[in-house]
Amino acid sequence: MDHVTIDQIRGELQDSFETLMEKYNIDDIGTFEEEGPEDDYYIGYTVRKNGRVYMVHMPFAKTDEGQLELARQEWTVETDDPTDEDISGFPTIDAVFEQLFK
């Protein structure tokens, strides 16, 4: 992936909301963003289904120009339950939701 702006990624995520909600019967969906240490940046979805909240994101590196570059093609899932461990290694968003909502 080339360098892209945060707004470009947000737009791509938002464009997929309706499709994902219908395909996986999701109650609510929004964007997730979190700045990590140094140049790390995580962006993806916040999803609510059946009373649970999931933060599903990919790792990016922030460039000196403030743009983002994909660090790894790997989705990670966090939940709102602090006792749950993060689950990483999903190659696609469909793989994430198929695992979570099977």
Rg measurement, Å: 13 Å
How is the main sheet built? 6 strands, antiparallel
Q: What overall geometry do the principal axes of the alpha carbons give?
A: globular
Q: What would the average pLDDT be, to the nearest integer?
A: 95
Percentage of residues in strands: 35-45%
Number of helices: 3
- CATH fold descriptor: Alpha-Beta Plaits
Spell out the CATH superfamily: GK1464-like
Order of helices and strands: HHEEEEEEH
Please report the first level of CATH classification, the CATH class.
Alpha Beta
Count of separate structural domains:
1
Intertermini distance:
30 Å
* Helix proportion range: 25-40%
Q: Provide the CATH architecture.
A: 2-Layer Sandwich
Which structural class is indicated by helix and strand composition? Answer: alpha+beta
Q: In total, how many beta strands? A: 6
Helices and strands, with pairings:
Blueprint: H1 6-15, H2 17-24, E1 28-35, E2 40-49, E3 52-62, E4 68-70, E5 75-79, E6 87-90, H3 93-100
Please, could you describe this protein's structure?
With 102 residues, the protein is of the alpha+beta class. It has one domain: GK1464-like (Alpha-Beta Plaits, 2-Layer Sandwich). It has three helices and six strands; from the N terminus they run ααββββββα. The chain has helices spanning 6-15, 17-24, 93-100; strands at residues 28-35, 40-49, 52-62, 68-70, 75-79, 87-90. Strands 1, 2, 3, 4, 5 and 6 form a six-stranded antiparallel sheet that branches. The mean pLDDT is 95. It holds the Pfam family DUF5634. It comes from Sediminibacillus halophilus. InterPro entries: GK1464-like, GK1464-like_dom.
